[in-house]
Amino acid sequence: xxxxxxxxxxxxxxxxxxxxxxxxxxPFNLIIDWPILKKHGVVKxxxxxxxxxxxxxxxxxxNVVLLIRPEIKNIDLIYRSIRSVxxxxxxxxxxxxxFVSRKSTMCIRRxxxxxxxxxFKNILELELDLIPFDHDLMxxxxxxxxxxxxxxxxxxxxxxxxxxLMTLQAxxxxxxxxxxxxxxxxxxLEMIERMRQEVPATDKSILPKIENLILIDRRIDLMTVxxxxxxxxxxxxxxxxxKNTQATFPGAAFQxxxxxxxxxxxxxxxxxxxxIFNEARDLHFNAIGIFLxxxxxxxxxxxxxxxxxxxxxxLKQFVSKLPHIQAEKRALEIxxxxxxxxRKGLDKHYYESFAxxxxxxxxxxxxxxxxxxxxxxxxxxxLTKILRLIAVQCIAGDGLRPKLLEFYKREIVQAYGYxxxxxxxxxxxxxxxxxxxxxxxxxxxxxxxKLKLCVDNVNEKDPTDVSYVYSGYAPLTVRLINWLTxxxxxxxxxxxDDIVKYLPKPCxxxxxxxxxxxxxxxxxxxxxxxLVYFIGGCTYAEVSALRFLSQHHPNNPQFTVAxxxxxxxxxxxxxxxxxxxxxxxxxxxx
Length: 590
What we know:
By secondary structure, the protein is of the alpha/beta class. The protein has 25 helices and 14 strands. The strands form three sheets. Strands 6-7-14-13-9-8-12 form a seven-stranded mixed beta sheet, sandwiched between helices. A five-stranded parallel beta sheet has the order 2-1-3-4-5. The protein has a two-stranded antiparallel sheet with strand order 10-11.
């Protein structure tokens, strides 16, 4: 993506100003930095906005490059921006659009309706491939992937998934064993098969380094997404939102002395480069206090080595360790501050809501109106919080009874506005909230029982089961992956024959052959490597559960997670909730 972006920028001769879709700034920050763009003639960068800043005209910068996702709201903003300057001024500027990852016919049509398509010297596409968030985690970071695939029935995101897998197979060989779980997973596999027929073979000499690919349609397990994560990293994401491996916290929480007063928000990188966070990220939050205390003692003991240094050699050894000790101390201070912020957020109201969520997930009183949810509506609590609980109740009971759904819908519409009829329409389309059906084959209660999704008496500080990541609930996706990797995945879903019938169809296993038409042997120098690709999004708790599974599984599988977006229940519902009419950007017609 970096080289393609630079190639596109080279097409714009002279000085360049870039306008960024805000959802693209974070992902691109991970793959390209400002000095490289500056070297290629970019003089300034702005967020996409509805007017051209006057300094562009004053400085006579020659090119305006608009880097956007193919969304109508972005075209509306571009229209307003271009119309904010006179036609004479526009003639002095060359405008360019770069669509990420594909051009949209609807966007081009909107440009034509606005009669501004001729204003652009170039209308280009830029493929944004998987972005590595960590050594075992990659993401396309498409914030609307769930909505596009499961509400709007737009397969553009699936094409992007297939293309990213083709790129991986070009580098690491054809993955011989593929397991498909769900409709969108099947579509992706079909796209890959067509692409392999259309593209000249490039995999003849590459032994596969990845043995298994598991494609998971997010609708296979919606309960996990709407449930509250309780791992350290999961709670950070729930409370503060991790965006592109960073989260922003109140600056005052990182005040370590009385001389300076930090008030500006503090952005903290959250990945394996931080030694303290790397060890803490997958722990249950109830184990964080003990972990941080032990780390503080270790660092204190490391500093005390200076007192015990009696010879010059011993002193030199201590000095050589000192930068590492100081770095760990700074990292510990930061993670201790973050843990303190989370602890404050886990108040009485949080635990009340969490207790209701657990009861609903276990199937208690899912057939009738929940008084706690009703109370939240009357108090006009955040709508995401309410809808998450209703979704838990709905999924746990295989749908809501008509009268119950009508009650929730009526109360929310009256309390939050009639535009949320659109919200409910979207939620019903993607099966987050839906009506009970007679003779329903897909059965969450059956899966909960057969796969032991709800576990009692979980040891949160020294866990022995993946259910610790949700305090007694094991993600269905991880249970399925566990079963698949217990035997040979080459046998497809043999180990899940009794489970598959309760899952959304289709579910099957398939072998991929190399370009020579033979089943390739696995690179024996590699490990038992499995790529798990979540289509529609993945939670940090699921990643933590897979890391735990890798460490405790008898076959010692090595998991790498790929996803269309890292998400949690709040960020998922935010993409589905219809904004208030007064917050919407109006359509502007010429």
